[in-house]
Write a structure and sequence with these properties.
Elements lengths: L1 H12 L23 E5 L3 E2 L6 E5 L3 E7 L11 E8 L9 E9 L16 E9 L3 E9 L4 E9 L6 E7 L13 E11 L13 E2 L19 E11 L11 H9 L2 E3 L6 E4 L5 E6 L9 E4 L8 E3 L4 E2 L3 E7 L3 E7 L12 E3 L6 E4 L3
Antiparallel strand pairs: 1-4, 2-3, 3-6, 4-5, 5-13, 6-11, 7-10, 7-13, 8-9, 8-11, 9-12, 14-23, 15-16, 16-21, 17-23, 18-19, 18-22, 20-21
Helix pairs in contact: 1-2
């Protein structure tokens, strides 16, 4: 546990180096704590692969999935696929669909943005789609309401292609040195005229919606259209270097800073009445902020076992405390405990029933 915490500390404190040169977490799409596929998506959320938020604004219905599909010989084994299941060939002006990932300001200080010594950033990724033509990608500075867009071309339908884009240095607007979202990387899939009616903003400047995704083809134009990506790397400098593959346990630890399913190992607690108990857990790694608990199912079976007594089923679960370092869960409505106070118990439920999020 201590080693995983040190991994996160190292990433936050170091500037450019041979370690953690990739600003993107989970760019190889290996980690998917929430699950590998979600269908019927019409709203924005984190659905499958960690750290990538799928944003849908009234533009079609989608399936997002982690796929065992990647460019041959690249070293990648996974990708994320965005599949259109209900089309929107004529989007309204404000409609949009995109894939985003957000970065903390304290991890971006070595870019020196907002100073005369500001660094260029180079983005590289592998992409595949059956919708050829012009696609767009954008960097957004949320601290200073600035942005910079670029376009790339998918030339061949259904074929993995590697893309490299270098964004210029921005000498205006420093990133905040905190744990909030300072920089966003936005992959466009489709937009209404509010985002496409201007001129593509190919240099850093004040954020203007109309200039953000000009020329973007509409992946939502037909059912079974798809867009797929892996190997996403954003690094300092004007050159794309080989992708930084991290050990799986390091990649997971970085993702767990933002989201984790409840891991009950080593839990301790007690009944404080004959029907209620509290159990505390230590997070696998410290989270970005105090976490928000989500109970994914209204059905809880066989969760609590008092010493020497059969498993019990609560009727409700709530967060008594959800923090950076750990959680305290309140369970109610169980059958009568043999001892009202001080009874040690173990957790027997499905660990995916409860999750904690500190996402940006």
């Amino acid at each position: 546990m201590a080693k995983l915490s040190n991994i996160l500390t190292t990433r936050s404190s170091q500037g450019p180096s041979d370690n953690f040169k990739n600003l993107i977490i989970n760019g190889d799409m290996q980690i998917a704590q929430r699950g590998t596929s979600t269908a019927s998506i019409t709203t924005s959320n984190y659905y499958t692969v960690d750290r990538f938020n799928f944003t849908v604004g009234s533009m079609g219905t989608w399936t997002m999935s982690q796929e065992n599909d990647a460019p041959t010989g690249s070293g990648f084994r996974k990708s994320v696929k965005i599949l259109c299941t209900t089309a929107d060939a004529s989007p309204a002006a404000s409609d949009q669909v995109r894939l985003d990932t957000y970065l903390e300001g304290q991890n971006l200080q070595h870019i020196k943005k907002g100073t005369a010594a500001a660094e260029q950033l180079t983005l590289s990724f592998w992409v595949k789609s059956n919708v050829t033509g012009t696609h767009t990608v954008r960097l957004v500075d949320y601290d200073n309401t600035r942005g910079d867009s670029a376009s790339y071309t998918i030339s061949v339908s259904g074929t993995w292609e590697k893309k490299t884009i270098t964004f210029p240095a921005d000498t205006t607007g420093a990133f905040d040195n905190d744990n909030a979202a300072s920089l966003g990387l936005i992959f466009g899939l489709g937009f209404g005229s509010n985002f496409t009616s201007g001129t593509l903003q190919s240099t850093w400047g004040s954020y203007t919606d109309a200039n953000s995704h000009v020329g973007q083809v509409n992946v939502a134009s037909a059912i079974n259209n798809y867009w797929q990506v892996t190997g996403v790397q954003l690094e300092v400098g004007d050159t794309a270097t080989p992708f930084e593959f991290l050990p799986a346990q390091q990649e997971l630890a970085q993702c767990q800073r933002y989201y984790t399913n409840l891991y009950p190992y080593g839990a301790v607690g007690s009944f404080y009445s004959t029907t209620q108990c509290k159990v505390s857990f230590t997070n696998p790694v410290p989270m970005r902020t105090d976490a928000v608990m989500t109970v994914k199912s209204a059905t809880y079976t066989d969760m609590i076992e008092q010493t020497g007594v059969a498993l019990r089923t609560p009727t409700s679960i709530s967060a008594n405390y959800a923090g950076v370092a750990g959680q305290v869960i309140h369970l109610q409505g169980m059958s009568s405990a043999t001892t009202a106070h001080g009874a040690i118990y173990r957790w027997g439920g499905d660990i995916t029933t409860i999750s904690f999020s500190a996402e940006l």
